[in-house]
Structure formats: C-alpha cells, structure tokens
Design goal:
alpha/beta, TIM Barrel, twelve-stranded mixed sheet, 12 strands, globular, binds S-adenosylmethionine, binds iron/sulfur cluster
Length: 342
C-alpha cells in the first residue's frame, strides 16, 4: 500500500461516498422545499456511479491509504441493493471500517440485519429533535421522531454499533431540544453527537448567528448534569468527547465552526456522479467518472487520485473566521450537503 499526503502533510485515510443526490426528507437546512421541490431535477440513474465503478474507486483509494469508508447521500438507503455494494466494499483489502449515515426512515429491522451481515460496521442516524412535531417541521415531510428512534433501536439490535445519533442545532429552531435529546440517550449504548450548523452549500441561507456553539451546548447540559471532557481516542477525531459525571454515558460535540479541525482532516468525498472533493466546502469536484468510463487503467486512476490529494491545501473552516465578513459573496457555487454527504 502506498501512502499519499497533501501539502499540509495530511494523509488520505477516509473516503465518504455519496450514493445518491435524492432524499425522502426535505430538512429545511439541507434540502429546503423551495429549492428541492417538484421541479428540481435530480440526477438520472445512468449518471450515478454504478456498483462496479464505486468498488473500483474504493479499491484504488485503499491502495493510497484509505482504511475507512462512509456511505452517505442524499439518503443512501434509497439506493437499491445497498447490501450487495456493502459486501463488495467490505471485501476490499485495507478497508477496515464501513459506516453508513442515514435519516433512518428506511432502516427496518430486516434491512439493519442485512446491512450488518453484508459488512456495515457502524451506523450514524440523524435526529434533530425528540419532539415529534418539531422534528416533523424540520424534516418537512411529517416524519415523526419516534420512528427514527425505532430505527436507532433496529441498528443497535443488529449490532451496528456503537450507534451514533447526529443532531444539528440551529438557533431559534431546536436549541431547546438539547436537554430532551441528552435525556433520551443517557443510560443507553447510543452516543449522541451535537453538531454545529455549518455553512455548507448556498441553499440554506446560513448566518453565523444561527450557530449554537459547542460552548453553549456544554453550558446547557451542565445546567443539569456534570460533564467532563475526555481525551481524543484517534488522531483526526472530529468530535469533542464528554462523559456524564454520574456514569450515564458520553456525548460528542462536533464544533466545526467554533473549533475547526482542518489540521487533522484526512477525508475525501466522492459525489454520486464520481467527482472527488477534497473539502466539504469545495466549489469544484474533480471528475473521475469520465476517465473511469473511457478506459483509464487502475494505475492511471490511482495516479490521478494521488495527484489531486497531494495538491490539496484545503482548510476552509480554519479560514472561515477571517472570511465571514464577506462570505455571502464568496459562497456562490459551493457544493450542497445533500449532493456530497456529511
Ligand atoms: N440523509 C442522511 C442523513 O440525514 O443522515 C445522510 C446525508 S446528510 C447530508 C448527512 C448529515 O449531514 C446529517 O446528519 C445532516 O444532519 C448533516 N447536515 C446537513 N446539512 C448540514 C449543515 N448545514 N450543517 C451541519 N450538518 C449538516
Ligand atoms: Fe435528506 Fe439527510 Fe439532507 Fe435531511 S439531512 S434532507 S435527511 S440528506
Ligand atoms: Fe476538512 Fe474542509 Fe472541513 Fe477543514 S473545512 S475539516 S479541510 S472538510
């Protein structure tokens, strides 16, 4: 196995693969209905990478040092026969961790077991409120929080753990759900992670004032429960980990806005049509599908990937602070979260 590092000496370790740009939710901060309504043109199936193409790029990435794959979207469970793809990815030499990020709406008991049997190691589910009505308003398709909680139970029962639950907080939308969310997952095997709302893409109209910061999240929980910071378990870990002093488990906080972690960022992202992005805040991806579909050899594709990664100098979150003043103008064209995955 070769190892490739970027201009800031960061190795390539993780590949996040978006399996589709479609979703059955219309979360107001991700795929707002005004922009992703009936007229929105989603990608036709032939545009999406097929399983052979995804497997091939994953194998070539593993040859350059990738050990971890995360399947995301859009909603990855909308992709038919996902377990077939997972089994193929799990068989790749060097891949030792395959995770799935999902809204849980399609994670039945049966599907959770099929995915576990195919080789998914861990699942992260997204849930932004415990209150059914609040959650229905956020996903904007009337999906109740209680059903996502059933999906979380299905993931735990299938051994897809430690199961994580992601909760994106927006000021004035769901910051009052911090304590109810914390309470729902205390004394369980589920690790709840609060996420600072990020300025991904351009369609959510993000403003710095909308962000509930890590400090505010910790203070809110500490108003009821003692919390102690835990050391990081792995280099490049995105979440700050905290444990409840009364032994009720731990939580994570992903402070991408207030405490950026670009220095340890080893993630590349592949869009559903095979563009490689070296940063979540990228404007242009690099097209790998054209060479894939026009006969490039593995060695050529590997050299292409290595070239893209070694030229990488992204550290968007670290420089966001300096640019916040004029960022509305700079934001044009940035890739959307639903297109590239979390
Ligand atoms: N549909 C799946 C889901 O919701 O889990 C996977 C794709 S979704 C884009 C991945 C994650 O990104 C979700 O946890 C979602 O809440 C999060 N996300 C989307 N937009 C975000 C934003 N602007 N800031 C922070 N997280 C965001
Ligand atoms: Fe869909 Fe996930 Fe975006 Fe919500 S956050 S709209 S579930 S892709
Ligand atoms: Fe990585 Fe870009 Fe996020 Fe920094 S801003 S942590 S480089 S994805």
């Amino acid at each position: 196995m070769q190892s490739v590092t970027d201009t800031m000496h960061r190795p390539l370790r993780d590949l996040r693969i978006s399996l589709t740009d479609r979703c059955n939710f219309r979360c107001t901060y991700c795929m707002p209905r005004e922009l992703f309504g009936a007229e929105h043109l989603f990608l036709p199936k032939r545009e999406l990478l097929d399983f052979d193409e995804i497997e091939r790029l994953a194998r070539i990435s593993a040859g350059l040092g990738v050990t971890k794959l995360r399947l995301t979207g859009g909603e990855p469970l909308l992709r038919r026969d996902l377990d077939v793809l997972v089994a193929r990815l799990a068989a790749i030499d060097g891949i030792d961790d395959i995770c799935l990020t999902t809204n849980g709406s399609l994670l039945t008991e049966k599907r959770a077991h099929e995915l576990a049997a195919a080789g998914i190691d861990r699942v992260t589910l997204s849930l932004d409120a415990i209150d059914d009505e609040r959650f229905k308003a956020i996903n904007d398709v009337g999906f109740p929080a209680s059903k996502v909680r059933t999906a979380i139970d299905n993931a735990v029962a299938a051994g897809l753990g430690p199961v994580k639950v992601n909760c994106v907080l927006q000021r004035g939308v769901n910051e009052d759900q911090i304590l109810p969310m914390a309470e729902a997952f205390r004394h369980t095997d589920v690790v709840l992670r609060f996420i600072e709302y990020m300025d991904v893409g351009t369609s959510n109209g993000w403003r710095m004032d909308d962000v509930v910061t890590a400090r505010q999240i910790v203070d809110t929980i500490r108003s009821r429960y003692g919390l102690t910071r835990l050391p990081a378990t792995a280099p490049g870990e995105t979440a700050n980990r905290w444990r409840y002093d009364d032994g009720a488990g731990e939580i994570g906080i992903i402070a991408s806005v207030s405490q950026p972690f670009c220095g340890g960022c080893t993630r590349a992202r592949l869009s559903a049509i095979g563009e490689l992005y070296t940063c979540l805040f990228g404007v242009h991806g690099r097209d790998l599908r054209t060479p894939l579909r026009s006969g490039a050899t593995d060695a050529e594709l590997s050299a292409m990937l290595a070239g893209i990664w070694s030229a990488r100098d992204d550290r968007y979150s670290e420089i966001r602070g300096e640019e916040t003043e004029n960022r509305r103008g700079d934001a044009d064209g940035r890739v959307e979260m639903s297109y590239i995955g979390g």
